[in-house]
Amino acid sequence: MPAIGRAQRPAGPGVAGRSHRLTGPRSAATLPGMSGIVSKSFEQPDDKITFDHGYTNVLHVGSLAVGREVLEPGWRWSKHVKPIADTDRCEFHHVGYMLTGRLGFESRDGETREVTLGEVYEVAPGHDAWVIGDEQVIIIEFQGVLGWAKAPEPGERVLTSILFTDIVGSTATAERLGDKPWKQLLSTHHEAVRGLLDLHRGHEVKTTGDGFLATFDAPARAITCALAISETSRALGIEVRAGVHTGEVEVSADDLRGLAVHLAARIMDAARPGEVLVSATSRELASGAGMGFVDRGSREFKGISGQRQIYQALPRVAAAVGSPA
């Protein structure tokens, strides 16, 4: 499927909401227990999804969910919905029909497309979208409605790449520097880490004392960010250790839960100062990203059954000069 596709379709009977009278016998293919004809109005939706600069009225018709979406001028998915969805891009597959206005799309690989009045569009997961101009956008969505623009429910399990970081010897460094200089250094470090998380499309879950717990939509981004955090911290005169693992987690209000979270924390604990250790799962998924990996063997981690293979991640420059992969 192309990242962004569209097909022009002339307005005809029924396209803009005109009703038609249906006559004739009930089809033999009609499912048992349902009436032959069902009609609903978006003015009385089964569900309404609201977000900054827009809303979607949803109707459930049989097994289908159809949405009428209204987007105000200035709306952009990455600005107004991203904080709700907690993903870098919209990960829903959308199929819709433009009733009014102009909508811009950008795919994960950088392809852009403008969709206008009277056009049918299909957009693959991994895109951004925005209203073009000063006219309100109204669209009918036939796919990508359920769960859209909603935060993951507490207890919902999602697949993500988890990064833990920790400053090595923080207590000794604080004693050596004194309270005020240490607080200033910690503040500078946190600011730098947050900038790198933003650069590499990470999401800060929380701070863990003097470290961070963050998630990413791809393991390569998590590993690259971890390496950048290590390098930046070293320039500040401190060393960090980091661990990365990719797996399913349970989303709670302000935290993550699950075996994958514990494993990522244990992997970080095994790292030496300045090291970024990753699980075999994350290494395999990031193998095409051009970075290097050194096999650090398998080991058992406290509270986790079985042997787990871990690898040390290396920057691209180090990988290029012949470090083992």
List keywords for this structure.
2 domains; 37% strand; eight-stranded mixed beta sheet; seven-stranded antiparallel beta sheet
Give a description of the structure.
With 325 residues, the chain is an alpha+beta fold. It has two domains: 4-143, Jelly Rolls; 157-320, Alpha-Beta Plaits. 24% of the residues lie in helices and 37% in strands. Strands 11, 12, 13, 14, 15, 16, 17 and 18 form an eight-stranded mixed sheet that branches. A seven-stranded antiparallel sheet has the order 1-8-5-10-4-3-2, with no helix packed on it. The longest helix has 21 residues, at 179-199.
Helix-strand blueprint:
Layout: E1 4-8, E2 47-51, E3 54-61, E4 64-71, H1 77-80, H2 82-85, E5 94-100, E6 102-106, E7 112-116, E8 119-123, E9 128-131, E10 137-143, E11 157-167, H3 170-177, H4 179-199, E12 203-208, E13 211-216, H5 219-235, E14 240-251, E15 256-257, H6 259-270, E16 276-279, H7 280-285, E17 292-301, E18 304-314, H8 316-320
Parallel strand pairs: 14-16
Antiparallel strand pairs: 1-8, 2-3, 3-4, 4-10, 5-8, 5-10, 6-7, 6-9, 11-13, 11-14, 12-13, 14-15, 16-18, 17-18
Helix pairs in contact: 3-4, 4-5
